[in-house]
Write a structure and sequence with these properties.
Number of strands: 7
Distance between the termini: 47 Å
Strand content: 15-25%
CATH superfamily: NAD(P)-binding Rossmann-like Domain
Radius of gyration: 17 Å
CATH architecture: 3-Layer(aba) Sandwich
Largest sheet: 7 strands, parallel
């Protein structure tokens, strides 16, 4: 059984990951989850998957979650950004889904890579901010970084499918299809 930590459990990557986990309960165990402050979204996840640990970065949200689930679950609620990072590096975790958006996802991604985890990376910003450092750390720790965000995963699959020699790739162009660029006109760049 592969033990999965889902960081960013209350977001869209979290929802997609949970759908996959539902289909493969025989192979994966959701062992830990984390979110910033959306504690209400964590309740059904805790009830369905019964993770051992849940980290909530926001203290007030963690308190509210603890009150909501304490009678129904034995989940251990941890508080603070440090708790999220601790889950990423925990020995009881095999695979980390790095779904915390923005620069906020970098510390936990770094911790997972430093701990030699298999990291399913949905956070583009971590690579933008610290790409070379993350790759060097992965090489040193034995971590495996696998892109799961749509565009990056497509490039990854194409390169693997073509048995691509990276030295022969001159450029890769990624679209700016979402986020702050979703409605931006081309002539405003």
């Amino acid at each position: 059984m592969i033990r999965v930590a889902l960081l960013g459990a209350s977001g869209s990557i979290g929802a997609s990951t949970l759908a996959v986990l539902r289909q493969h309960r025989d192979r994966f165990q959701l062992i830990a989850i984390a979110a910033r402050s959306n504690w209400q979204a964590l309740i059904p996840i805790i009830e369905e998957f019964q993770p051992q640990v849940c980290a909530v970065a926001d203290a007030a949200a963690a308190t509210a979650l603890l009150q909501a689930v304490s009678q129904r679950s034995k989940v251990q609620i941890e508080v603070g950004d440090g708790a999220v990072t601790a889950i990423a590096a925990a020995t009881y975790v095999d695979v980390v889904v790095a779904g915390i958006s923005g620069f906020a996802g970098l510390p936990s991604t770094w911790a997972a890579v430093a701990a030699g985890k298999q990291v399913l990376l949905a956070n583009k910003e971590a690579l933008v901010a610290a790409g070379r450092l993350l790759l060097d750390k992965a090489a040193a720790s034995g971590a495996q970084l696998l892109p799961i965000d749509s565009e990056h995963n497509a490039v990854f699959q194409c390169a693997n499918g073509l048995d691509c020699d990276p030295r022969r790739v001159r450029a890769i162009t990624l679209t700016a299809s979402g986020g702050p660029f979703r409605l931006r006109l081309l002539d405003t760049f």
